[in-house]
Every structure is written in structure tokens, then in C-alpha cells.
Amino acid sequence: MRTAYRLPVAGIGTADHLRTRTADRHQPGDIAQEHKAPAATRHNNGFLTERLLPVAPDYCMDEDDVTCINLTTPESFDYLYRSAVNYARLLDVRLPFPKKSRSRCPRLDIARLFEVMDNLVPESVNLEVVEGRLAFCLYRHHDWPDHTLFWLPLDFTKALSTPVRRLVLEFIRRFMLHHGMQDLKDTYYYEMACDDLESRPAYDEDITPREAKAWKKLVESYEKGGIDRMLKRIWKRPFCSGFFRKLTEHCPERENERGLLALVKEGMAFIGKAVPSIMSYQYDWAYEEEPDFRPVPLYEQVMLVYSIRDVLTEDMMEIFNSDQRETYCLSPVTRMLLSPETDRLFSMDDFPERFARWFGKFTEYIERHF
Questions:
Q1: Where does residue 132 fall: left (phi above 0), alpha (psi -120 to 50 degrees), or beta otherwise?
Q2: pLDDT per residue as tens digits for the range 70-108
Q3: Please, what sign has the CA dihedral across residues 139, 143, 148, 154?
Q4: What are φ and ψ of residue 92, in 5° steps?
Q5: Which residue among 10, 107, 199, 259 has the highest number of C-beta atoms inside a 10 angstrom radius?
């Protein structure tokens, strides 16, 4: 699905020289009109006083390296118009775009219809390319915390007793698989942080040889050491059998572990067959094919890390914060494509809001107690 978001012409423009704007300009049919000097060809220059309508370029999509499909055709406008009329009927209102107001340019009609829909519905509106044709897309942003990283660590599990550690790791494994999370090594932030830690001691005089040696050892652990093995292990076989039964029955002796398992049980509401994935809410509402700075995707805001305390992760956070100042983050969005057969109004749930609240409690508890 591709976004045809930015429309070069938002509607039919007004002429630069309307007759009503100049008091001393003669109107057509005015019998007092003075004689005009003809051009050298002996023909009056009528085209100089006529109203010139703007010509909007067609929106085309490259199907391959050779074929280009024009999406602003009469058929495309008809599909959008029928979709708009149908949704207006569901809203129990009349679409303020009568058929007789159509022009000879489908591209302009689509732009005008887009403006009508944008003013008609309470949601935001985009034009999307779906299966080779344009379609209206209604969308609305969820209430999502700004400038917040939902990075789930693993290192704290070393401080847990063996039964609790296996339960927590199995929960994390199921949680990340359900939500399609990736780990930090799949991002370019990780590569940049590794390069920075390896090169910085050469030019930063404040870094002691001991710090440089510790950084080198940390990067090696991420690359081919214990951290690398732990990150790979989380993707593989389960950490325990009878997970649901053991999670219900086990009661740890330590109070901090009992509180942690209570949050794990609460987090079970965010995995399962009928539960959506947080990544399914990702939508780039301002998509560009070649942006100056790419937006920060949701899967880099919600991901698995080894630690949130080591120097490599802190370096990644600094790079992330730098990127945020140049671009925007893709926060969860509920969207709905319209068609002439749409039979329901736009609606949205509160899953991302509940997800963010629980995730925040879970990671905060980890930082305080482990």
C-alpha cells in the first residue's frame, strides 16, 4: 500500500485576473467598449483576456521499469466518488459534491473530492494506492507517549531465581514473537554505536585505557560473545514446558519476584490469538518515496535489547534522539480504507494505549527492583 498524500493542486485555482477585480476593464457585450488595436496578424488577442484554468499533472505509478500507470483517470474518480457517496450515506449526510460539478479533468475532480471528504469526516484523510488504484483512507492517531522508547531488556533475568527466570524469559519470547519485535542488532543504530565505541578512544583524550578496553570487550560480547548468544537463544525453543500452568501455580519466596510475575500475568492480556500486534498499527501518514530523513518506524521504538544500562545502548539512545530532531516517529494509528461496499463507520480501540501503560509499568518495575 502506497500513499498518494501530497497533491500538487488542492482544487481548481482562481484566475489571476478576474473581470470583477478591475473596475475599468470592459465586460463582454459592453456596447461602450472602445476599439482595440488588432495584432500584427489582424486578429484580436482574445486569448490574453480569457480565464486560464490550471492544468494539474496526472498522478502516475511505476508498475515496473517500463510501464507507468495513470491513477487519475475517470474510472479512478468514479471509484472514489462512489466510495465517498457510500460513506456519506453511512454518516446519514449528503455528500456536498453533485455530479454536475464535475470538470473535464479527473485529476482536478479527485483533488476537489479529497477536499470535500477531508471536511466531511472527523478523521484525517489520505489517498492510498491499493491494488493499482486510488482509495480513500481514514486514519486517526492513538494517544501514544512522545519521545518514549519501549525497549525490553534481558540482562535483569540473571538476578532471578531459576524457576522465575525461565518463566519470565518464556513470556518475553512469546511476547516479542507475537508483536513481531526485532532486537537491537537489526538496526543501524547498533552499527553506528559499535563504530563509535571502537573509534572514539582514538580521538577522545578523556577516555581512559581501562574504559576503552571495557568498551571493546562489550562490543565483542555483542558481536560473538555471551550477549550475542543470549539474543539468539530468545528466538529459539521454549524456556520451559507447561508455561501457563507454572505461571499460575508458582509463588516465589522473594517479594520483588512475586511483583514481577504479577506484571507478567497482566501482560498475558497482550498476547494470544485474538490479540492484535502492536506493529499492525504502524502507518506512515506522510509517506514519501525519497525522504530527506526517514521517519523512525514503530519496530525501532518497540524492540528487544540486552540492557538499557550499558554504554552501547546509551550510545544508541543518543543517536535515536538525534534522529528525532530531524524527522518524526511513526506512532500507532488506526486506519480504514473506503470502498463503495464499505458497511461500517470508522472506529478505533484502545489497545496501543493499554499496551503503552503496561509496558511502562513493566520496564519501570525492572529498573527499580533489579
A1: left
A2: 888 999 999 999 999 999 999 999 999 876 667 778 899
A3: negative
A4: 65, 40
A5: 107
The x, y and z cell numbers of residue 99, run together, are 455530479
Statement: the pTM of the whole predicted model exceeds 0.90: no
Beta-bridged to residue 303, according to DSSP, are 151
| Proportion of the chain above pLDDT 70, given as a percent | 81
- Other CB atoms within a 10 A radius of the CB of residue 67 amount to 8
Say which amino acid occupies 345: L
User: 2 has which bridge partners?
Assistant: 129
**C-alpha cell, 255:** 517479594
Task: Give, rounded to a whole angstrom, the gap between the first and last alpha carbons of the chain.
Answer: 43
The number of angstroms, rounded, from the C-alpha of 337 to the middle of its chain's C-alpha atoms is 16
Q: What angle do CA 154, 184, 332 make, to 5 degrees?
A: 100
Where are the chain's structural domains? 2-9+51-141, 150-330+349-369
Cβ-contact 363, 153 below 8 angstroms: yes
Q: Which has the closest alpha carbon to 81: 114, 122, 56?
A: 114
**Grid coordinates representing 361?**
509499568
Task: Please count the other Cβ atoms lying within 10 Å of the Cβ belonging to residue 145.
Answer: 14
The amino acid present at 297, given as its one-letter code, is P
Using alpha carbons only, how large is the chain's radius of gyration in Å? 30
